[in-house]
Amino acid sequence: MGDLAFRHTRSVNDDGTWLVVGLGNPGPKYAGNRHNVGAMVVDELASRGSTKLTTHKARAVAATVRIGMAPGGAPGPAAVVAVPSSYMNESGGPVKALMSFFSVEADRLLVVHDELDIPAGDVRLKKGGGEGGHNGLRSISSALGTKDYLRVRVGIGRPPGRMDAADFVLRDFGTTERKELPFLIGDAADAVEMVVTQGLVLAQQKFHSPA
């Protein structure tokens, strides 16, 4: 597939395009892994925008969409949704290249990723802070020279027993988890939409409140 059809250029009256990046590892071997739930969320956002991810020269697959609904029912802000084609620990290069290509600033970068330290099925949001040992986030922070970007953290829970965390994230979701996975992906996609259309604080109030 070819490159995306446009390069975003910013005008003085334009707040700019968002870049929403879902983290994962490339190829069918990893597609169902817990570590790839961020990529699954971006696939959902592309589907909601009635489009599919296609190859981009920034070592990624990407699509242009409108995110959510603006007040009054108009289509939400423009966004590029993307998944790096590199392995997780090399995510920073593609993210930096996408930001350069589409003229996206760090305050409009939103990274969707799996999170061991959040209970399975929960979604949490933050801006900046540490990477918690997540190699994809570490690579992005290193490439950008800043940690000050938005994150949608998709809870996968801790591994059972003495299972190594690295083995746990590189295994497919279990049978019970797969039944709940569409709801988790939907919630995370909803969180992305709310951050983009209503801001981080309101989104945190919704997704961090007890059910």
Automatic annotation (TrEMBL):
<dbReference type="InterPro" id="IPR018171">
    <property type="entry name" value="Pept_tRNA_hydro_CS"/>
</dbReference>
<feature type="binding site">
    <location>
        <position position="87"/>
    </location>
    <ligand>
        <name>tRNA</name>
    </ligand>
</feature>
<feature type="binding site">
    <location>
        <position position="30"/>
    </location>
    <ligand>
        <name>tRNA</name>
    </ligand>
</feature>
<dbReference type="GO" id="GO:0072344">
    <property type="term" value="P:rescue of stalled ribosome"/>
</dbReference>
<keyword id="KW-0963">Cytoplasm</keyword>
<feature type="site" description="Stabilizes the basic form of H active site to accept a proton">
    <location>
        <position position="114"/>
    </location>
</feature>
<protein>
    <recommendedName>
        <fullName>Peptidyl-tRNA hydrolase</fullName>
        <ecNumber>3.1.1.29</ecNumber>
    </recommendedName>
</protein>
<feature type="binding site">
    <location>
        <position position="135"/>
    </location>
    <ligand>
        <name>tRNA</name>
    </ligand>
</feature>
<dbReference type="InterPro" id="IPR036416">
    <property type="entry name" value="Pept_tRNA_hydro_sf"/>
</dbReference>
<dbReference type="GO" id="GO:0006515">
    <property type="term" value="P:protein quality control for misfolded or incompletely synthesized proteins"/>
</dbReference>
<dbReference type="Pfam" id="PF01195">
    <property type="entry name" value="Pept_tRNA_hydro"/>
</dbReference>
<comment type="function">
    <text>Hydrolyzes ribosome-free peptidyl-tRNAs (with 1 or more amino acids incorporated), which drop off the ribosome during protein synthesis, or as a result of ribosome stalling.</text>
</comment>
<keyword id="KW-0820">tRNA-binding</keyword>
<dbReference type="GO" id="GO:0000049">
    <property type="term" value="F:tRNA binding"/>
</dbReference>
<feature type="site" description="Discriminates between blocked and unblocked aminoacyl-tRNA">
    <location>
        <position position="25"/>
    </location>
</feature>
<comment type="function">
    <text>Catalyzes the release of premature peptidyl moieties from peptidyl-tRNA molecules trapped in stalled 50S ribosomal subunits, and thus maintains levels of free tRNAs and 50S ribosomes.</text>
</comment>
<dbReference type="GO" id="GO:0005737">
    <property type="term" value="C:cytoplasm"/>
</dbReference>
<comment type="similarity">
    <text>Belongs to the PTH family.</text>
</comment>
<keyword id="KW-0694">RNA-binding</keyword>
<feature type="binding site">
    <location>
        <position position="89"/>
    </location>
    <ligand>
        <name>tRNA</name>
    </ligand>
</feature>
<feature type="active site" description="Proton acceptor">
    <location>
        <position position="35"/>
    </location>
</feature>
<dbReference type="GO" id="GO:0004045">
    <property type="term" value="F:peptidyl-tRNA hydrolase activity"/>
</dbReference>
<keyword id="KW-0378">Hydrolase</keyword>
<dbReference type="InterPro" id="IPR001328">
    <property type="entry name" value="Pept_tRNA_hydro"/>
</dbReference>
<comment type="subunit">
    <text>Monomer.</text>
</comment>
